[in-house]
Design the sequence.
């Protein structure tokens, strides 16, 4: 197959060889790319997955992990996986709404309970499989869904209760679901490129933003924000996507080894991300930012306002497929909480 022009530089950059899997029946080398830093939870734990897969397959399967957009941006890598120019990618669901509209279900605030074990029970309770299946009709095979932190609010003004948000302007990712969820608490949501956010906060273009604690620290948003609210309102989820032909070309026992390693490492991912968040929070406090932890009643009030607005926005834009996915989520949530 002749690849489109945009993929030729990518092929040259990553040095892919056009060799069929059958030519290396006893040893396979797989390349997986992602956009995060080498010190990130995603990279550290993908390296762990690679080690465990090598051990489980007696060295037959090698996984090479390429961090920090070495193989292209997330959109470029996802498209490369579709075309078979790249074996796999691990990417944030938040960047994939244009590729898979059903992915925007993850933009619904308070989708998961704050307890990590209950949240994982929802992923394992059928919702994770249904969510992954939504990618499988789009030229990729979703092999894993895993958590990568939760979003908190920062602002130039104190915020805790829903009424505190009124009249403010917040930066969000380019998602209609996020825009509608903040509109429900009288916030004007403005999609601004991530690389421009620090300046937008510094100059007052927006009053606040939402991100995980380690992102808030690493991007130095605490330098231009006075208040942090530990709302835990938004899930940051990642998926691991393989090219379907490459995935199906692996021996069944190799596929199982990869799937098992990705699933078994999730508790370590959660712990690693939590530790990074704790370190970031301590540094943010030390920098003089006022940190507020809303009461359970205030969190419940935020969810009661934001969740329905975001849910309705998602369902209005995702049709019957979206309705079926939301039903799978609701069933898994009910089972996990009861």
Sequence:
């Amino acid at each position: 197959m002749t690849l489109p022009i945009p993929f030729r530089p990518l092929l040259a950059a990553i040095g892919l060889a056009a060799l069929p899997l059958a030519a290396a029946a006893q040893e396979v080398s797989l390349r997986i790319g992602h956009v995060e830093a080498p010190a990130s939870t995603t990279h550290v734990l993908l390296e762990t997955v690679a080690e465990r897969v090598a051990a489980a397959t007696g060295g037959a399967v090698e996984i090479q992990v390429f961090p920090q957009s070495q193989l292209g941006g997330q959109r470029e890598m996802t498209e490369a996986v579709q075309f078979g120019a790249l074996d796999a990618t691990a990417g944030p669901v938040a960047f994939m709404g244009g590729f898979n509209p059903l992915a925007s279900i993850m933009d619904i605030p308070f989708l998961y309970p704050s307890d990590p074990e209950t949240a994982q029970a929802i992923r394992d309770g059928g919702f994770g499989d249904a969510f992954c299946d939504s990618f499988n009709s789009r030229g990729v095979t979703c092999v894993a869904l895993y958590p990568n932190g939760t979003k908190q609010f920062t602002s130039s003004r104190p915020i805790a209760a829903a009424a505190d948000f009124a009249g403010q302007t917040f930066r969000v990712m380019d998602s209609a679901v996020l825009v509608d969820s903040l509109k429900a608490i009288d916030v004007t949501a403005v999609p601004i490129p991530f690389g421009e956010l620090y300046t937008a906060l510094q100059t007052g273009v927006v009053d606040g933003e939402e991100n995980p604690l380690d992102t808030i620290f690493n991007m130095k948003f605490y330098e231009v924000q006075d208040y942090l609210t530990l709302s835990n309102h938004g899930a940051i989820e990642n998926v691991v996507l393989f090219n379907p032909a490459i995935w199906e070309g692996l021996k069944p026992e190799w596929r199982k080894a990869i799937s098992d390693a990705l699933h078994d490492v999730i508790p370590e991912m959660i712990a690693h991300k939590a530790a990074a968040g704790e370190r970031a929070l301590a540094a943010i406090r030390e920098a003089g930012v006022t940190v507020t932890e809303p009461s359970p009643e205030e969190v419940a009030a935020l969810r009661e306002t934001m969740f329905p607005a975001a849910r309705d926005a998602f369902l209005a834009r995702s049709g019957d497929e979206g309705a079926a996915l939301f039903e799978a989520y609701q069933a898994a949530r009910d089972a996990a909480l009861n």
